[in-house]
Design goal:
single chain; Toxin - Anthrax Protective Antigen, domain 1; Jelly Rolls; 2 domains; five-stranded antiparallel beta sheet; 1 helix
């Protein structure tokens, strides 16, 4: 393994050694596995200079389409300060950002080994999908299809908004991703922090996956974007800004030992970070994780 203490990051299956104090420049080469085809974005953070090449081309964080399978990569690292830090992350086709897993890094090309690893990825993916599909959903009316007077049943609205502006909180009957409807939050000509809220019953000390679809229009970066969050927990998806078509967001986290009820939220803006724009929410689920 190659270990960078300041970032607590291991490159396993590569050099079989730790960074020594005399080494200020390192070149790491090998093969990485992409379990599925589609756009991939790589990001390097380092205590010093670094450069990443995948399939012989430099990668600067912009998405690039990669086929499923093995890809040659090279990392060139030059230490500039007293510490050694280097960390490689990957944003996969689903939009999730994660540290590249050690099982996806190999010293050299091995067709049999790569086929086995890809098969393991596929088996885990199918098992996870089957588990989530059969796990009871704690959310009621997560598709916002059940409405009365333009408001979604089983959800309540909480918000702070500026004294002036145009604010709309309703079920949009022609905007759904998975069905006909979606929950709409709209802040125009004024800022606000608004959220559709529902309380769910959970088991303490248990992992859950909170997921759904979000679409945005004119959400600025002057405040918090559109996201899913559970109050007083680590459940929070990435924030979506600008004008973006439907994106699937998801977060998995564990409930505390004393938590029996949680307050889930579909949110635009945040405490101390109100915003403007429009956000639609659909297909919201909260299920026990595999």
């Amino acid at each position: 393994m190659l270990y960078f203490p300041s970032s607590k990051y291991y490159f396993r299956n590569i050099l079989g050694e730790e960074i020594a104090g005399a080494k200020d420049a390192v070149e790491i080469s090998g093969h990485l596995i992409t379990p599925e085809a589609g756009p991939h974005a790589f990001a390097l953070s380092a205590d010093g200079q670094c450069r990443l090449e995948v399939d012989g081309a430099p990668r600067d964080g912009s998405p690039v389409h990669l086929a499923q399978g093995s890809h040659a990569y090279t990392i060139r690292y030059l230490k500039e300060g007293p510490s050694y830090g280097l960390r490689l992350t990957l944003t996969d086709p689903s939009g999730k950002t994660r540290i590249v897993r050690e099982r996806d890094l190999q010293v050299q090309y091995d067709a049999a080994a790569f086929s086995r690893i890809l098969a393991e990825h596929e088996a885990r993916r199918r098992a996870r999908e089957d588990f989530l599909r059969n796990s009871p959903d704690r959310i009621v009316n997560g598709g916002f299809e059940d409405a009365y007077g333009g408001q979604p049943r089983d959800w309540r609205l909480e918000h702070w908004q500026s004294p002036t502006g145009r604010f709309v909180y309703a079920v949009d009957g022609n905007a759904g991703k998975e069905g006909r409807c979606a929950g709409l939050i709209e802040h125009r000509d004024g800022v606000a922090d608004s959220r559709w809220v529902q309380e769910v019953t959970v088991k303490p000390g248990t992992e859950y996956t909170f997921a759904g679809w979000i679409r945005t229009e004119d959400v600025t970066r002057h405040g918090a974007g559109a996201f899913l969050v559970v109050e007083n927990t680590t459940f929070k998806t990435e924030e979506i800004f600008g004008t973006a078509d439907w994106q699937h967001v998801e977060v998995t986290a564990k409930t505390d030992a004393d938590q029996h009820r949680l307050k889930v939220q579909c949110r635009l803006g945040n405490y101390g970070a109100p915003n403007t724009g429009r956000a639609w929410f659909d297909g919201i689920t909260f299920r026990e994780a595999p």
